[in-house]
Amino acid sequence: IPPAPPPALRSPAGASLCLQVALEALQRSQSPACSRLCDVLIGQLAPPSPAPAESALVRGLQDPERSRLLEAAMAVAGPQRLRQLFQQQLKGRLQGVAAHRVANHGLQRLLDHAPADVVGEVLSELGPALAEPLARGHPGVLVALLGACRRHPGLQQEALRCLFQVGHAP
After folding, report:
1. pLDDT tens digits for range 125-150
2. Stretch (H or E) spanning 151
């Protein structure tokens, strides 16, 4: 595993952009270094918290500087890594993430790349509460969730049910 990027490389917007492009280039070249860099970045920006009530990933997604890099890492992370991030740091916290002005974009990236089981759990947890992110002006959460369900046909019926519930919300 390569050493973690120095803090100065993770903070400035230009450096973050360089790391985002590096992740994309490594993914396109199918280099094994892509998953290693992804793991290092996630480990540095959102390490697992020993306190079950806290989530470094949620805090990272809420931070405008760290969220872009976390989103880029989630875009290249494999299904197993996304499943792990969801189970350890997002499950049970989705309503707050979906309603947050910055963090909702990270949830959208997760949904863009998540395996069917993760999308199903997001749908179960967030589906009945989709009116809240919409009321806060975050329609991208609904669009990403419906797009993810479109890729996984077994979830389409439940997604339609949730969509109709949102359409009838007062």
Report:
1. 999 898 888 888 889 999 999 999 99
2. helix 139-151
Residue-number span of the structural domain to which 144 is assigned = 11-167
| Calpha distance 124→139 (Å, rounded) | 18
Q: Which of 120, 113, 103, 48 is nearest to 74 (CA)?
A: 113
Torsion of CA 103, 109, 112, 116, to 10 degrees: -70
- Sign for the pseudo-dihedral over CA of 82, 20, 34, 29: positive
Q: Which of 115, 137, 125, 135 is nearest to 162 (CA)?
A: 125
Q: How many domains does the chain have?
A: 1
Q: How far apart are CA 126 and CA 113, in angstroms?
A: 17
In the block, residue with structure tokens 């990403």: 144
- Is residue 1 in a domain? no
Whether pLDDT at 109 is above 90: yes
Distance CA 19, CA 90 (A): 24
Q: Is residue 3 part of a domain?
A: no
Share of the chain above pLDDT 70, in %: 89
| The residue count for the chain | 170
Instruction: Enumerate helices (H) and strands (E) in the chain, giving the number of each.
Output: 12, 0
Statement: residue 48 has pLDDT above 80: no
Residue 130 lies in a domain: yes
